[in-house]
Amino acid sequence: MLAGDGDAILFTSSSAAVRSDGPAHNSTGFSARGLARSLARQLWPEGIDVATVLVDDSVGVPDQRDWTDHPNEEWIHPDHVADTYWHVANRHPNALTPELDSGTHAADISFV
Question: What InterPro entries does its record include (predicted)?
Fold first, then answer.
């Protein structure tokens, strides 16, 4: 991985990790977020991208839902989550960010 060929380490969390949704989730989520940011600072010069993707809705299971009947519900299609991760893992080195918020238009996302 240290060969600098554009590898990525991606963490998953939710914005609840950075807002007041309870001490247990706050502390563990915030710790993982801090670890990701620390690794990002250390590994970006080596060509390794480290980021946290905050997923703020429920991810649906394709075989258990009819996506055509209820497209505006607060569910994220797994393919859309995969597309987001693919984009983050393959972004240009001049467009790096340590964190990305992801959710549906109906989500109550807290940008912190």
Answer: NAD(P)-bd_dom_sf
**φ, ψ for residue 82, nearest 5 deg:** -60, -40
* Beta carbons of 31 and 23 less than 8 angstroms apart: no
For 51-94, what is each residue's pLDDT tens digit?
A: 988 887 777 776 766 656 665 566 787 888 899 899 888 888 77
pLDDT at 50: 92
**In this structure, is residue 83 part of a structural domain?**
yes
Could you tell me the two tokens for 109?
Answer: 């996302």
Whichever domain contains 50, its CATH number is 3.40.50.720
Q: Which domain holds residue 18?
A: 8-102
Exposure string of 73-107, with b = 16+ CB inside 10 Å and e = fewer, is eebbbeeebeebbeebeebeeeeeebbbbbbbeeb
For 85, phi then psi, to 5°, come to: -60, -40
The model's pTM is 0.73
